[in-house]
Amino acid sequence: MRKLLFLIGILVIAFPVFAQDATPEMTTMPESAPWTCPEGYEGQTLSIFNWSTYIAEDSISNFEAACGVTVIYDVYESNEAMLARLRGGNPGYDLVVPTGNTVAIMIAGGLLEPLDFANIPNFANVTDALKDPSYDPGNVYTVPYQWGTIGVGYNITKVGEPITSWDQVFNYDGPVAWLDDLRGMMGIALNILGYDPNTEDPAEIEAAKQFLIDNGKNVVAIAGDDGQAMLERGDVDITIEYSGDILQVINSCECDNFDYALPDEGAVVWVDNLAIPTDAPNKALAEVFIDYILDPHVGADISNYTAYASPNKTAIAEGLIDEAYLSSPIIYPSEAAMQNLFAILDEPEAEQIYNDAWDEIKISLGK
Amino acid sequence: MAFSLDLSQSSSHSSRERTQGRLLALPAVLWLFLFFLMPLAIVFVVSFMSRGQGNAITFPLTLEHYQKIFGPIYFPVFLDSIKIALVTTIICLAAGYPLAFFISTRRTKAMQQFALFLVILPFWTNFLVRTYAWRVLLGTEGTINITLMNLHLIDAPLQLLNTDFAVLIGLVYGFLPFMILPIYSSVERFDFRLVEAAHDLGSNDWRAFWRVVFPLTLPGVGAGCILVFIPAIGAFITPDLLGGTQGLMIGNLIQGQFRGTGNWPLGSAASVVMMGLVMIGLLVYTRLGRRG
Amino acid sequence: MAENTAANRAQYQTIAIDHGKLRRDMLTRNLGKVGLILEPILGYFFLWAPILVLVIFSFNDSRSVAQWHGFTFQWYQNIFNDVVGAEARFTTGNMLIALGNSLFVAGIATVISTTIGTMVALSLARGNFIGKRIVDSVLFLPVVIPEITQAVSLLLFFSILFNFVQSTTGIRVSPGFGTIIIGHVAFNISYVAIVVRSRLADMNPRYEEAARDLGANEWRTFWRITFPLILPGVISGALLAFTLSLDDFVITFFNSGPGTTTLPVFVYGLLKLTVTPEINAISTLILLASTLLIGISIALQGRNAVS
């Protein structure tokens, strides 16, 4: 049942989004008016908890100016870190940005507040395929923020050849970094071994764990969202990382050294979402902020800066997204590539098995 | 140890004095009880609880976390931590003693203070900043590698960062002043006429050092060793920033649970075992101190 | 004195000088002399190399932190122009806010811990009550228990406490400056107590006895005799507490709330970023500030020192 669900989910994501790509002569819509802030929020404070390098330079300051508010902006480096902070009791954040399967975990754990869509009219701008996801049916708690893939960022000058297989990553004779995303890494291993990346079978999870331990000889670090920094510094030649992070490095480096690949065996596709945790001090303002993010101009700014894929159909239709990005297979994988990608789903019964396996992997790599 | 200094020399221990003493100590005792001892007790209790659905802390009480810790996967990390702490202590001793000796044998007090100041000053910068500096030095395209390659001493960069070696360097760097200061105060109090006496009795410098100087500066050496070893066991920032997958220590395990995978009872159990190790180290030190 | 007879002279002639041993001993001495100069040089180099690298490369006319390309103030200018790192949240403004937070936390924590710490030091040095040994041992613990244990124990404690408060009274309490300060005071009390106690140990109790003999009550004795005499110790303790608070990362990291980023936490975030020489520049500035602070405190101590 689960397998069917994720297959459908992938197909649903894969096709409609790229229907637009398939017709390049489509005329762009006229640009919509800039976003304005509803009255009555002056002097208030909004506390945001987001991933690192995951918003445009002036998005926050523009919001502060438009609404006359102060924004407190903290970052985390993995879903697990964010969950750990919230589970001890919400320290006061109004907004968090969990990935799909983490949303499911949080909903099940009563950690999220339902959204009041009266405050979020811009929800109409969300790409239809990304609405009503399996992890949050009906979009009760979340709206999509960005989406992307987990693949291989590497220094092509040092590696010497393009990467097309996970084999090259695991057998590379040089320093490599993995991503500190336990379900992502386990999913990659399960997929290589031919199993369902979202399996609940302890034996299969055990096999994936052993696979990673056996093939982790060249791993020098398990990086939580800063693998691209290690790649850029030259501390690693290959890193498993999120698509946009690597593209940011490719863009900022005035060189041809770096590239990003989605190996043939399969890679992870994910959707990050905006959500409001329970006990948020200022829920209404958080909803206004969500509406702000869903504005096509703001959304385009963010996607153009962070180099991730936008879930905002209006932004794409109005031609606000960078042309080069729209046609980049790294950010918007082709239909064929999408067939090869799988999403990570929440598996509550197996959560502890996965956690324990990942702990073991981290310890065993240090031997 | 300085803590057991008994200064109640005055003869009149009136009940007023006793009450005053108790009152003065009260805020500290209350604060430490509430915000230090109680939390530690909670850690102890939580270490026996189970991890429930959604990483909640629930009953039933269980020993499974301790079983895991003393099991084949986690226990080597504890042993490794002790090993790393020991090696750090030894290197600090070997490097710190000559330095302390040098400082204390400068001719004027002012020069001694200046030499000491030069040791302490790097220590007064932000700890994270100093650790970052080592990342710059040790990186694959960092200062050391670039310099060695420019001097044509190596062809390919060495893997210095994200290794056990990097963690050791970071720890030694962070704890060296803790070794130097107590040894300095011991050597400073040492009467060098004893060395002359040893020479008169026919021993050379080497024997004089090992048979006279070192034994009499042992209190300083001991204090330095314990001041390095104990915090080194609990190190976590250094292995986190400099070690990558290598040099994993108990502190990283604990951090991984409380800020990552979320198995708080397991993290608590690891903390309890770490405290146990620290206590054992202290016990050994005080026993040895009493014999010497 | 033995007689200068031939027999006696013969005795002395049998004492041969072991030239081999003498040479070896002189070699040992010379090696020792060389080593005693060489090792400290290497030692100081080791201690200062990272600092020097940081400072030197903060003036490097290139983004590289390994190769020298020329001198520039660019990175310092960037900082003053509000550009600190590649990411939006790392503006100079935010860094100054983090610094302000650090000073705020350190200030309050210092005042509280110095007061409490001095009080307990006095009680241990002057009073003699049951349980003194226990207080002694309890004070000793924060110095030896590893910081990370203290940090996670506080995290657990506050988490459980706040959940309990919320479930019984419905009032929502969150981690924030309060929890950080509480944690800082908890470890600072011991350090202040150690410093003040050592000062009290040096102090001659006869002054107080004399004052009491002359008719002063406890309060006057304290404020006019004891306190001025221990003041250098109290100030040293306060400075130590302030520095420890400013530099603290572990306890703050685990017990902070939104918007309570202190300078070490800010730097930690910066470290995770792509390498930018602005980090070197900031580090140099931090180093300068620390040196100034220490220099001032030493100068103050030099003047206040009771010989």
Helix/strand-derived class of chain A? alpha/beta
Strand content of chain A: 15-25%
Order of secondary-structure elements of chain B: HEEHHHHHHHHHHHH
Provide the gyration radius of chain B in Å: 24 Å
User: Helix segment count of chain A?
Assistant: 16
β-strand number of chain B: 2
Please provide a written account of the structure.
The complex is a heterotrimer of chains A (367), B (292) and C (307). By secondary structure, chain A is α/β, with parallel strands linked by helices. Chain A is 40% helix and 16% strand. Chain A has 16 helices and ten strands. Chain B has a two-stranded antiparallel ribbon. In chain C, helix 3 (74-80) packs across helix 12, helix 4 (92-126) packs antiparallel against helix 9 and helix 8 (206-213) runs antiparallel to helix 9. The mean pLDDT of chain C is 82. The interface between B and C is large, with 94 and 97 residues.
Write the layout of secondary structure elements.
The complex is a heterotrimer of chains A (367), B (292) and C (307).
Chain A (H helix, E strand, L loop, with lengths): L1 H18 L25 E7 L7 H9 L2 E7 L2 H9 L7 E2 L3 H9 L33 E14 H4 L6 H5 L5 E4 L2 H11 L9 H13 L4 E5 L3 H7 L4 E5 H10 L5 E4 L5 E9 L7 H11 L2 H11 L6 H5 L5 H4 L8 H5 L1 E2 L8 H14 L3
Parallel strand pairs in A: 1-2, 1-3, 5-6, 5-7, 9-10
Antiparallel strand pairs in A: 4-7, 4-8, 4-9
Helix pairs in contact in A: 7-8, 8-16
Chain B lengths: L14 H32 L3 E2 L5 E2 L5 H6 L5 H30 L4 H12 L6 H12 L4 H8 L13 H25 L4 H8 L4 H12 L1 H16 L3 H7 L6 H12 L2 H28 L1
Antiparallel strand pairs in B: 1-2
Helix pairs in contact in B: 1-13, 3-7, 3-10, 5-11, 7-10, 7-11, 8-9, 10-13, 12-13
Chain C lengths: L5 H8 L5 H39 L16 H7 L11 H35 L5 H13 L2 H23 L7 H26 L3 H8 L4 H30 L2 H6 L7 H9 L5 H28 L3
Helix pairs in contact in C: 2-12, 3-12, 4-7, 4-9, 4-11, 5-7, 7-9, 8-9
